[in-house]
C-alpha cells in the first residue's frame, strides 16, 4: 500500500487514478497510471478527508498488488506527481502534531510494531489506547488543582487561606506523590516488558553455556528474533522469561587473536557486552576448589576482559546431576543447577526476575520507555523537594515552583510540553511509512 498524506494528496491520487471522484472512505477500483499515462498496476484507492484520518490531514491510500517493483513504480509516480517520500515516523509525527494522539501513544505504535513478545505487544496496545497517558494526565490534573490553591494563597494573602497549616496542601501533595510512585512502578514494569534484560553468559569451554541457553529458551516456546543492531561479531538470542524479553549474548566468539579484523570484532563484542545488565558465569560444579568470589579463576583466559565490564555477576554451578550438589540457591549466592535435567533452573529464573525487578506477566498495564521513567523520577524528585519546602521551611513560593517543575516533567511524557529535538529523536527511530 502507498499512503499519501497532506493537502495535495487528493490531487496527486487523481493524477494517478485518472481524475475520478473518490467518495470519502469508499474503496474505488482504479488503474494507477504513471506520468506517461501507462498503467502501472490496478487496485483500490481510498480517500480519507481531513481531519478524519490517521494523520488528521487529507489521506489517500493506494492498494496495489504488492511486490517491490510495482510498489516502487507506484511511489515514483506519486513523487512525479508532486509527493515526496515520508521520513521515518513522519505519519505518526503528523498525527501527534495534529492532536490525533499524544506522544506516548505515538511511541506505542513503534513499540507495537517492534514487539518481540506477546506481553510487550499487549502492553504497547494498552499504551496506544491511552492507558499510560490517562495515568499521567490524571497526575497532571491533580497537580494543577494543587498549584491553583497554593498560588492563590500566595497571590491573595489577605484571603487568609492558611494553606501551609490547614493540612489540605500537605495531604494532597502526599496523595499525588504516592500516586506518582505507583505510576513509576508500573512504568518500570512496562519498560521491562518492552526491553527486558540482557545477559552475557561466560565460562570455560564445556561448562554448559550453550546448554543453559537452550534450557532457558526451551522453558517457554522460544521466540528467536533478529535484534536490530546485531553485528555479525556478537551472537544474540532473544527468549522470554514469563513475558519479559531476555537477550542472551554468547561469548563463544571471544578468543585470543592476532588477526586485526578479528580483534576489531572482539572489541565490538566487548562494547556490546558492556551494555548488558548482568554477567552469568558458568562453572562445572565438579571442579574442585571453586571460589565464587574469585571470578578471575572461573573465566577462561580468553574471557578475562569480561571482569572489567563492571557488570553484576551471578555464578552458576552446573551439572548438579553429576556432582551431586543440591540444586537451587546456595548460601554463598551461587545457583546450583543442571542444564541437562532442568533441576534448579526455576530458582535461577526466579533470581533473574528478582534482580530485574520484574513482577511477572500481567503486572504491566502499558509499555513505557526509559525517557518516561526519567521524567517520572524527575517529577517525584520535584514533589519531594516541594514536601521539604512545605514542611521544613513553610516556603510557599518554592513549593509552587517545585509543583510547576513536576508538572513540566510529566507533560514531557505525553508531549504536552516538548523540546523540538526530543520529537526528532523519537520519530527518527520509527520505520519509514509509519
Ligand atoms: P559450553 O561449551 O559451555 O557451551 O558447554 P555445552 O553446553 O556445549 O556443554 C558441554 C557438554 O556438557 C555437553 O556434552 C553437554 O551435554 C554437557 N552438559 C551441559 N550441562 C550439563 C548438565 O547439567 N549435566 C550433564 N550431565 N551434562 C551437561
UniProtKB/TrEMBL annotation:
Enumerate the spans annotated as TrmE-type G domain.
196-357
- The entry marks the following residues as binding GTP, namely 206-211, 225-231, 250-253, 318-321
Native organism taxonomy: Bacteria, Pseudomonadati, Pseudomonadota, Gammaproteobacteria, Oceanospirillales
Q: Where does (6S)-5-formyl-5,6,7,8-tetrahydrofolate bind?
A: 3, 61, 100, 434
Task: Give the gene name.
Answer: mnmE
* GO cellular component terms, semicolon-separated: cytosol
Compartments in which it is found:
Cytoplasm
Q: What is its EC number?
A: 3.6.-.-
Q: What's the protein called, per UniProt?
A: tRNA modification GTPase MnmE
SUBUNIT field: Homodimer. Heterotetramer of two MnmE and two MnmG subunits.
Task: Please give the function described in this protein's UniProt entry.
Answer: Exhibits a very high intrinsic GTPase hydrolysis rate. Involved in the addition of a carboxymethylaminomethyl (cmnm) group at the wobble position (U34) of certain tRNAs, forming tRNA-cmnm(5)s(2)U34.
Q: Does the keyword rRNA-binding apply?
A: no
Q: Name one GO biological process term.
A: tRNA methylation
Which residues make up the binding site for Mg(2+)? Answer: 210, 231
- PANTHER family tied to this protein: TRNA MODIFICATION GTPASE GTPBP3 (PTHR42714), TRNA MODIFICATION GTPASE GTPBP3, MITOCHONDRIAL (PTHR42714:SF2)
Q: Is-annotated flag, keyword Metal-binding?
A: yes
A Pfam family hit: MnmE_helical
Q: Which residues form a coiled coil?
A: none
Q: Which residues bind K(+)?
A: 206, 225, 227, 230
Cofactor(s) the protein requires to work: K(+)
Which family does this protein fall into? Answer: Belongs to the TRAFAC class TrmE-Era-EngA-EngB-Septin-like GTPase superfamily. TrmE GTPase family.
GO terms, molecular function: GTP binding; GTPase activity; metal ion binding
* NCBIfam families xrefs: mnmE_trmE_thdF, PRK05291.1-3, small_GTP
State the organism of origin: Alcanivorax nanhaiticus
What the record notes about the co-factor is: Binds 1 potassium ion per subunit.
Q: Which UniProt keywords apply?
A: Cytoplasm, GTP-binding, Hydrolase, Magnesium, Metal-binding, Nucleotide-binding, Potassium, tRNA processing
Amino acid at each position: 500500500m502507498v499512503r499519501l498524506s497532506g493537502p495535495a494528496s487528493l490531487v496527486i491520487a487523481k493524477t494517478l487514478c485518472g481524475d475520478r471522484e473518490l467518495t470519502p472512505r469508499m474503496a474505488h477500483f482504479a488503474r494507477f497510471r504513471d506520468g506517461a499515462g501507462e498503467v502501472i498496476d490496478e487496485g483500490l484507492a481510498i480517500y480519507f478527508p481531513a481531519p478524519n484520518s490517521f494523520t488528521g490531514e487529507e489521506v489517500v491510500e493506494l492498494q496495489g498488488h504488492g511486490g517491490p517493483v510495482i510498489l516502487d513504480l507506484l511511489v515514483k509516480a506519486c513523487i512525479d506527481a508532486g509527493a515526496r517520500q515520508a521520513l521515518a515516523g513522519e505519519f505518526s509525527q503528523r498525527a501527534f502534531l495534529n492532536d490525533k494522539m499524544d506522544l506516548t501513544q505515538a511511541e506505542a505504535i513503534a513499540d507495537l510494531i517492534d514487539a518481540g513478545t506477546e506481553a510487550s505487544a499487549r502492553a504497547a496496545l494498552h499504551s496506544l489506547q491511552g492507558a499510560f497517558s490517562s495515568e499521567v494526565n490524571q497526575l497532571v490534573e491533580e497537580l494543577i488543582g494543587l498549584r491553583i490553591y497554593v498560588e492563590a494563597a500566595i497571590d491573595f494573602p489577605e484571603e487568609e487561606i492558611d494553606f501551609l497549616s490547614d493540612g489540605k496542601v500537605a495531604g494532597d501533595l502526599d496523595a499525588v506523590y504516592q500516586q506518582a510512585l505507583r505510576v513509576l512502578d508500573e512504568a518500570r514494569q512496562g519498560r521491562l516488558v518492552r526491553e527486558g534484560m540482557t545477559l552475557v553468559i561466560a565460562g570455560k569451554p564445556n561448562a554448559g553455556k550453550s546448554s543453559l541457553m537452550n534450557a532457558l529458551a526451551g522453558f517457554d516456546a522460544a521466540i528467536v528474533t533478529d535484534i536490530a543492531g546485531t553485528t555479525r561479531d556478537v551472537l544474540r538470542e532473544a527468549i522470554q522469561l514469563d513475558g519479559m524479553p531476555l537477550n542472551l549474548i554468547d561469548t563463544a566468539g571471544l578468543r585470543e587473536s592476532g588477526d586485526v579484523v578479528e580483534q576489531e570484532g572482539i572489541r565490538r563484542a566487548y562494547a556490546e557486552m558492556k551494555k548488558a545488565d548482568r554477567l552469568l558465569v558458568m562453572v562445572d560444579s565438579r571442579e574442585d576448589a571453586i571460589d565464587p568470589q574469585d571470578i578471575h579463576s572461573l573465566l577462561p583466559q580468553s574471557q578475562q576482559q569480561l571482569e572489567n565490564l563492571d557488570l553484576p555477576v551471578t555464578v552458576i554451578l552446573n551439572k548438579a546431576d553429576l556432582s551431586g550438589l543440591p540444586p537451587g540457591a546456595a548460601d554463598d549466592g551461587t545457583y546450583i543447577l543442571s542444564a541437562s535435567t532442568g533441576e534448579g533452573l526455576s530458582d535461577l529464573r526466579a533470581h533473574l526476575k528478582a534482580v530485574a525487578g520484574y513482577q511477572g506477566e500481567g503486572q504491566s498495564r502499558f509499555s513505557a520507555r526509559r525517557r518516561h521513567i526519567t521524567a517520572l523520577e524527575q517529577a517525584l524528585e520535584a514533589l519531594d523537594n516541594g514536601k521539604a519546602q512545605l514542611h521544613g521551611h513553610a516556603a510557599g513560593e518554592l513549593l509552587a515552583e517545585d509543583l510547576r517543575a513536576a508538572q513540566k516533567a510529566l507533560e514531557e511524557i505525553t508531549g504536552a510540553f516538548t523540546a523540538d529535538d526530543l520529537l526528532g529523536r523519537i520519530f527518527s527511530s520509527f520505520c519509514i511509512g509509519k
